[in-house]
Amino acid sequence: MPAAPDFAARVYAVVARVPPGRVTTYGRVARAIGDPRGARMVGWALASVVPGSDIPCHRVVNRVGLLSGGWHFGHPDVMRDLLVGEDVPFADEYRVDLDACVWDPWEDDDSAEGPPRDAGVVLDAM
DNA sequence: GCCTTGACGGCAA
DNA sequence: GTTGCCGCCAAGG
After folding, report:
1. Does pTM top 0.90 for this prediction?
2. Which of A2, A3, A26, A80 has the fewest Cβ atoms nearer than 10 Å?
3. Which domain holds residue A25?
4. Looking at the domain assignment, is residue A125 inside a domain?
5. Nearest nucleotide (C1') to the CA of residue A71?
């Protein structure tokens, strides 16, 4: 069994909570689950689930809003079309305007913008 | 059993 | 201000 199935589960939980028209970054998700250094693991988890699941992985972009994983969809254009279809503003052809649509897991709860001390943030939201 | 790459991020020079 | 490097954990070759 995987070394950290719970890790991927948290990633899916956070990404699944991303509202339409909004996008999140790997660093934000990693930070929300309590692993600020697990940004890479977040991508690994999403790559393992692939589209078809209930995980809107197309709403997850890197820290600069670039569609890093666009090629995993077959072509960034596919991912871009999905985001555009949700009214997600784009700063560039393959770069979303994080300044306008960035979303934080802890931001979903009113003004609970407190820094994610640990994974309890997401677990508590569940 | 070993090393390299990988959907990233943060820090240093 | 910009560019480069290292670090994290896991999976694939």
Report:
1. no
2. A3
3. 5-106
4. no
5. B7
